[in-house]
Amino acid sequence: MEVGASNQTVRAKTPSGALRDALGRPLTSLRLSVTDRCNLRCMYCMPEEHYRWLPQSHLLSFEEFVKLVDIFTALGVRRVRLTGGEPLLRRDLDRLVNLLAANPLIEDLALTTNGVLLAEQAGALHRAGLHRVTVSLDTLRPKRFLDITRRDEHTRVLNGIATVRLAGFSGTKIDAVIMRGVNDDELGDLIEFGRGNDAEVRFIEYMDVPGATHWNVQNIVSRAEMLANLERRYGRITPVVSDGSAPASRFLLSDGTAFGIIASTTAPFCAHCDRSRLTADGIWYRCLYAMAGTDLRSALRGAGSRDEIAARIADLVRSVWRARTDRGAEQRKADQARSAFVPLDALQCDPHLEMHTRGG
Ligand code: SAM
Question: What is the rounded CA–CA span in Å between residue 360 and residue 83?
Fold first, then answer.
């Protein structure tokens, strides 16, 4: 049964001639990590005291990001998401939004933020042409927020969420990573909070992404468990049929309130994954779990005319995407002795392995 619900994610149609990888998955979604810096230190993402940052001179300018995005959209990308690190730490982000919004091939231009700086920037981002905002918020309790993020910014995040609607955005999402014994008692409260703020809540299973050095299997709360928990409070929950590439499975409460669950740990969506990621220094990753990426910055800054460089990068992207076979989350799931994915010393040698560098 197809159940309609308002506030649905914009799903761009796959262009007919879209570039496909070795498993038939189209290149349609690109995430731009505009900075590796973050103003929170979430226990599941940046639990360490010290990090190695990308060199300043390697960071792509907005114009360089736009050149690369133009190449990707010419090859079929239709959804672009700004992320990080914390994207709102990148100065004048609205200027990048404005440049990207001028690209008519981008059907969905979105932002993922922790919300700390959102109250100050939401208006400018909306005016610049941003389509949608996703805010990460794991708890409604200030003390718990401090424990999870190690920064006292809860009030600013709540203010940021309140500002999103006033700034004119719709289709807002609130993403919460659910961890056993940490915030698994707040599922219903978060749904209520989303309802009060015109936002659809999505619960994310705790993932063993690189950087989650404290991850362990006991702390996962599975999609099945979340649904059972919510059914105790709300009664019958109905699944919503969605298109294959969406990461979240969506559900409706009996009053029509929609919510989502991203079950990347227990039910990976690798078979339909159309996403790739560009780091702030121009390294392109085809999987969140990939150990290596493709250096597009060097290609972009290499010799040749603008057209020659663009053609060279397009050829590179085409050949690399066609060869793509990554199914990182499925491979992790198959590992019986699963523990933290990348050891701390390896992360410290290569900041590109970090989730906050490659963009969550
Ligand atoms: N700073 C922005 C934010 O907080 O939304 C964007 C970057 S953050 C890395 C993107 C998303 O990744 C957030 O929703 C965060 O909760 C999620 N994330 C980070 N580590 C995770 C993990 N170990 N498991 C599941 N989700 C994770």
Answer: 7
Question: Whose C-alpha lies nearest to ligand 1, atom 13?
Answer: 136
| Mean pLDDT, residues 313-332 taken together | 96
pLDDT at position 6 is 42
User: What is the rounded distance in angstroms from the CA atom of residue 278 to the CA atom of residue 352?
Assistant: 11
Ligand 1 centroid from CA 356, angstroms: 8
Q: What are phi and psi of 91, to 5 degrees?
A: -60, 140
- Which amino acid is present at 25? R
* C-alpha 63 – ligand 1 centre gap (Å): 26
Cβ neighbours for 206, distance < 8 A, ≥ 6 positions apart: 44, 177, 178, 179, 180, 212, 215, 219, 220, 221, 265
Cα separation, 311 vs 331, in Å, equals 34
pTM: 0.95
Tokens of 235: 């009664």
Q: Buried b vs exposed e over 100-119: b needs ≥16 C-beta within 10 Å?
A: bbebebbbbbbbbbbbbbbb
- Calpha distance 25→321 (Å, rounded): 9
27 and 272 Cβ atoms separated by less than 8 Å:
no
The CB of 206 under 6 Å from ligand 1? The reply is yes
Q: Provide, rounded to the nearest whole percent, the portion of the chain with pLDDT above 70.
A: 96
CA distances from 130 to 90, 121, 126, 167, 280 (A): 15, 11, 5, 11, 19
